[in-house]
């Protein structure tokens, strides 16, 4: 059991909560208006309509509470939430167009892990515990599909995939990722290219000409690196 799974579900769903609540409520109205066409038993249909109306109200209540939680976050927390979970390009552009994180990419992932713990505390303080989440939404398929993707290791499939990274990291910050390690450029592939070129250049400068021996020293191979998972 992952104690953070329901927090991720709600964060990923947050931008669409209003639309979900409206859709569920409208669906209940349509079922009621077209009840004469339904092949369901009358009692079962009434129960289904009532459940959808209740679910719609729960979603509106959830959105109200999450709006307050997000509003209580600081600028950095809201940027991290928007970038990883909400992914609303217009909000990133309008509200965080000039905002940058004075950290390296590796530190960014540590910050996201810390943020998840902070959001769990905020959710629980607002009354949205794991038990309450499953008690109220265990039969709500949109949430359960997100949860299933998380448990199957398919988190990337939950939201759209960016064509390129848009993470705004401050390139001139004095923070470092590790002892003796310079700050990497935002693009990992670009970092690899720069390091390989630097290694080649250093070998060219440092190796003296020695035609009498007819030997040459090959530059070391470029360090390999696997691009990090999508943020």
What does this protein look like?
With 231 residues, this protein is mainly α. It has two domains: 5-157, no CATH class; 187-231, no CATH class. It is 58% helix and 0% strand. It is built from nine helices and no strands. The chain has helices spanning 5-13, 17-33, 42-71, 75-86, 89-96, 105-125, 130-137, 141-151, 188-206. Helix 1 crosses helix 8 (141-151) and helix 2 (17-33) runs antiparallel to helix 3. The longest helix is centred in the N-terminal third of the chain and has 30 residues, at 42-71. The radius of gyration is 26 Å and the shape is elongated.
Key attributes of the depicted protein:
231 residues; 0% strand; mainly alpha; 58% helix; single chain; 9 helices
């Amino acid at each position: 059991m992952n104690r953070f799974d329901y927090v991720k579900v709600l964060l990923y769903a947050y931008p669409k909560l209003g639309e979900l609540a409206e859709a569920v409520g409208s669906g209940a109205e349509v079922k009621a208006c077209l009840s004469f066409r339904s092949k369901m038993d009358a009692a079962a249909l009434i129960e289904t309509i009532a459940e959808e109306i209740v679910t719609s109200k729960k979603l509106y209540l959830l959105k109200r509470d999450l709006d307050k939680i997000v509003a209580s976050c600081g600028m950095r927390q809201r940027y991290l939430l928007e970038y990883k979970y909400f992914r609303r390009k217009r909000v990133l552009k309008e509200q965080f167009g000039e905002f940058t994180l004075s950290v390296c990419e590796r530190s960014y992932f540590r910050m996201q892990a810390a943020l998840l713990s902070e959001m769990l505390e905020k959710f629980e303080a607002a009354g949205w515990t794991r038990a309450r989440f499953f008690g109220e939404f265990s039969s709500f398929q949109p949430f359960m599909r997100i949860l299933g993707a998380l448990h199957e290791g398919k988190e990337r499939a939950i939201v759209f995939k960016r064509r390129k990274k848009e993470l705004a990291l401050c390139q001139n910050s004095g923070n470092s990722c590790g002892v003796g390690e310079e700050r990497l450029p935002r693009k990992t592939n670009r970092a690899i290219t720069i390091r390989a070129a630097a290694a080649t250049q250093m070998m060219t400068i440092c190796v003296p000409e020695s035609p009498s021996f007819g030997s040459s020293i090959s530059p070391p191979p470029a360090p390999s690196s696997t691009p990090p998972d999508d943020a």
